[in-house]
């Protein structure tokens, strides 16, 4: 089976930027890493990833006090950054590149600050879509990312405008696994609040919740959806098929579908990285973009479409290769062009991927 090559990307908004992170410079020099599906990792590898994530949760925040009241630890720094830039990193021309580099920064933090020796794993949606609860990702075992939430009768079904999706059997705090009893520190936001919300980074503790939903996953994260994304003829189409949704209807792409299938914290457009599932979910998105680029590098490697604000609200300039992307306290600003080719600049990694549905564990190098 083929292995597809990749590397990572960047974007702009509100928290100030630090000086250049020297650990990122020049890392694409023969030290290529391979990102693998969660089921392909041995138990020690899964435990190492979980341990590194929990390590970040135990380290102090590096954001200056008062800048983000909800940032109590190093993991929170990544959530705060996503919250702060939400209105300029979704439903636009820099969604893919910003999140690509965001994943890379998280992976580097796990490695450099917590001694993690592996690569960022990903979640192959179709393999588990009909039975999330039995997947090695959500089975609640010590080598999972935790299970479903306790049943919460008052948990609200997920809504897309006037359309409401059927709820799952959870909705409460995560009941089992390494992230059970995890306290999140930023407020949970529903819908898309105004860009000038003065309290978006406030401290508002609550437990990590999940409401695993096989119906949503089976419909929106299926193999046919993945195949449709990969068959996109141009960048505008792949962006649309990944992330577009039609308000008031059950229509949405697998990016939204994966968030909705996991539960309320993952559905929160602002603070969704609060759930460690976020990193593996977006790893799959980056994998698909990487594979799509590799099919026709001459026309796709540096292809952009869209503006630099979400849904072009407010109206903004088109995304360009020289547009500077910001990451607050996580990294310095860099041009979009830096992040379009995964084997250049600061990136050097690939994905281990099996064509078609396959079976969990059926991998070849």
Account of the protein in words:
The protein has one domain: Di-copper center containing domain from catechol oxidase (di-copper center containing domain from catechol oxidase), CATH 1.10.1280.10. Helix 5 packs antiparallel against helix 8, helix 6 packs antiparallel against helix 7 and helix 8 runs antiparallel to helix 10. A hairpin with a 2-residue loop joins strand 4 and strand 5. By secondary structure, it is of the alpha+beta class. The chain contains eleven helices and eleven strands. The N terminus and C terminus are likely disordered. The strands form five sheets. A three-stranded mixed β-sheet has the order 1-11-2. It has a two-stranded antiparallel ribbon with strand order 3-6. A two-stranded antiparallel ribbon has the order 4-5.
Q: Would you kindly provide a brief summary of this structure?
A:
With 365 residues, the chain is of the alpha+beta class. It contains 11 helices and 11 strands.
Features:
11 strands; 365 residues; oxidoreductase; disordered C terminus; alpha+beta; di-copper center containing domain from catechol oxidase; Tyrosinase_Cu-bd; 11 helices; Tyrosinase copper-binding domain-containing protein; two-stranded antiparallel sheet; Tyrosinase/Hemocyanin
The CATH level-2 architecture is identified as: Orthogonal Bundle
State the domain count: 1
Average pLDDT number: 88
CATH class: Mainly Alpha
Order of adjacent strands in the largest pleated sheet = 1-11-2
| N-to-C CA distance | 7 Å
CATH superfamily label:
Di-copper center containing domain from catechol oxidase
Range of helix content: 25-40%
Radius of gyration: 19 Å
Count of separate DSSP helical elements: 11
